[in-house]
């Protein structure tokens, strides 16, 4: 009798589970009001979200249904004595093991998506993002800057390297399902590959002061043709709806003076701020005052403490603003701090120049 009850209970639970997944997942995916899926990762995150909703509904129905069933089935009746119920180790094992398996599935699924979300492809185009009260500023490799609008090509990996000039901000694109804190004094990054052209709203989702709600930007995804037009200086007219962007006639192109690229700007700052006096950009010796910078980005350097660190963007930034924090072995702490003397835009350009020294 007990085995029959266990089998019936397990079969009923499976029926409820499959019915819930079949009914709830499409409903959630098509619910009006959810942001559009502007990237492949958004589609994958939504699939995990739908699974979690379906699982939650399943266990809600299972637990509440069982509770109501037992309330009416085994309610107290006059003259009826409650039967003694013995332990059922198999049933106890099942309801311990099944949640464990489900939690591990959720963990592995979520970790795989997270790992994919934070690891940018090697061919990703890089854009510098600066957050400040209360606007977003964007720097491109070709030297141009925009405020409140960021332009990217469709179907092209894009990595945003972000920093803040004042307080903590958070860069959030709901349509892409990506969000990353933007921290003063360091770099953070997020990447995406947009699949839907048009405008996508950007929010700051970390309270940053009185006009926090107004710290907005538009991310405009362009077709390959529009992207080339924008790079040539043509004016683009973007509607409020995705997939609706038009280019004005050639007669309305912006007359722009030739811009210095971000690397060229960095080289100019490198010379004007005196960095070249101690650091060699071509690998030659500079009186042993500072490490040569050719090929240093992405390499490991040994410190006077004996430990080794990877030279990334945050290490370069720290070495410029606080040069005595991590001194390379074989060199003396003679470099002055440049904290407060280098703006965010200049810092981005300097690091872009150092990264280009291969």
Tell me briefly what this model is:
The protein is α+β, with helices and mostly antiparallel strands and 358 residues long. 37% of the residues lie in helices and 19% in strands. It has seven helices and 14 strands.
Count of alpha/pi helices? 7
pLDDT below 50 for ≥5 consecutive residues: which ranges? 239-244, 246-256
Strand order of the largest sheet: 3-2-1-5-8
Gap between N and C termini, in Å? 76 Å
| CATH class placement of the largest domain | Mainly Beta
Q: Major β-sheet, in short?
A: 5 strands, mixed
What is the mean predicted local confidence, pLDDT?
Answer: 82
**Shape estimate:** elongated
Rg for CA atoms? 29 Å
- Architecture (CATH level 2) name of the largest domain: Sandwich
**Number of separate structural domains:** 3
Structural class by sheet pairing and helices: alpha+beta
Name the CATH homologous superfamily of the largest domain: Cupredoxins -  blue copper proteins
Top keywords for this entry?
358 residues, Helix Hairpins, Immunoglobulin-like, 5-stranded mixed beta sheet
Task: Give your account of this protein's structure.
The chain is α+β, with helices and mostly antiparallel strands. It has three domains: 2-118, Helix Hairpins (Orthogonal Bundle); 125-252, Immunoglobulin-like; 262-356, Orthogonal Bundle (Cytochrome Bc1 Complex, Chain D, domain 2). 37% of the residues lie in helices and 19% in strands. It is built from seven helices and 14 strands. The protein has helices at 2-29, 40-73, 89-118, 224-231, 262-272, 313-321, 344-356, and strands at residues 125-132, 135-139, 145-147, 149-153, 158-164, 169-173, 178-182, 188-192, 198-204, 217-222, 236-238, 245-247, 300-302, 308-310. The strands form four sheets. The protein has a five-stranded mixed β-sheet, covered by helices on one side. A five-stranded mixed β-sheet has the order 4-10-9-6-7. Strands 11-12 form a two-stranded antiparallel sheet. A hairpin with a 4-residue loop joins strand 6 and strand 7 (178-182). Helix 5 (262-272) crosses helix 7. The longest helix is centred in the first third of the chain and has 34 residues, at 40-73. The radius of gyration is 29 Å and the shape is elongated. It starts with a helix and ends with a helix. The model is unreliable at 239-244 and 246-256 (pLDDT under 50).
């Amino acid at each position: 009798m007990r085995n029959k009850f266990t089998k019936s209970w397990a079969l009923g639970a499976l029926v409820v589970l499959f019915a819930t997944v079949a009914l709830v997942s499409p409903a959630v995916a098509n619910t009006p009001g959810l942001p559009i899926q502007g990237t492949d990762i958004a589609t994958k995150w939504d699939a995990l979200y739908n699974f979690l909703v379906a699982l939650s509904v399943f266990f809600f129905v299972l637990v509440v249904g069982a509770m109501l069933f037992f309330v009416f089935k085994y309610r107290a009746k006059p003259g009826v004595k409650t039967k003694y119920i013995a332990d059922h180790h198999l049933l106890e094992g099942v309801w311990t093991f099944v949640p464990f398996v489900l939690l591990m599935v959720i963990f592995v699924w979520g970790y795989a998506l997270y790992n994919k979300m934070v690891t940018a492809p090697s061919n990703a185009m890089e854009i510098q993002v600066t957050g400040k009260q209360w606007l977003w500023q964007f720097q491109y490799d070709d030297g141009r800057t925009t405020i409140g609008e960021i332009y990217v090509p469709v179907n092209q990996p894009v990595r945003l390297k972000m920093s803040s000039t004042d307080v903590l901000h958070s860069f959030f694109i709901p349509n892409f399902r990506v969000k990353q804190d933007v921290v003063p004094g360091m770099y953070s990054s997020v990447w995406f590959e947009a699949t839907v052209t048009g405008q996508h709203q950007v929010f700051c989702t970390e309270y940053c002061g009185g006009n926090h709600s107004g710290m907005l930007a538009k991310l405009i995804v362009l077709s390959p043709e529009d992207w080339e037009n924008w790079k040539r200086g043509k004016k683009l007219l973007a509607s409020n709806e995705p997939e609706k962007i038009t280019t004005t006639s050639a007669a309305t192109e912006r007359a722009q003076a030739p811009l210095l690229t971000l690397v060229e700007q960095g080289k100019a700052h490198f010379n004007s701020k005196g960095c070249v006096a101690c650091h060699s950009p071509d690998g030659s010796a500079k009186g042993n005052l500072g490490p040569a910078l050719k090929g240093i980005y992405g390499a490991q350097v040994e410190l006077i403490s004996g430990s080794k660190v990877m030279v990334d963007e945050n290490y370069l930034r720290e070495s410029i603003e606080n040069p005595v924090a991590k001194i390379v072995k074989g060199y003396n702490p003679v470099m002055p701090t440049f904290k407060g003397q280098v703006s965010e835009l200049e810092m981005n350009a300097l690091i872009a120049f150092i990264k280009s020294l291969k």
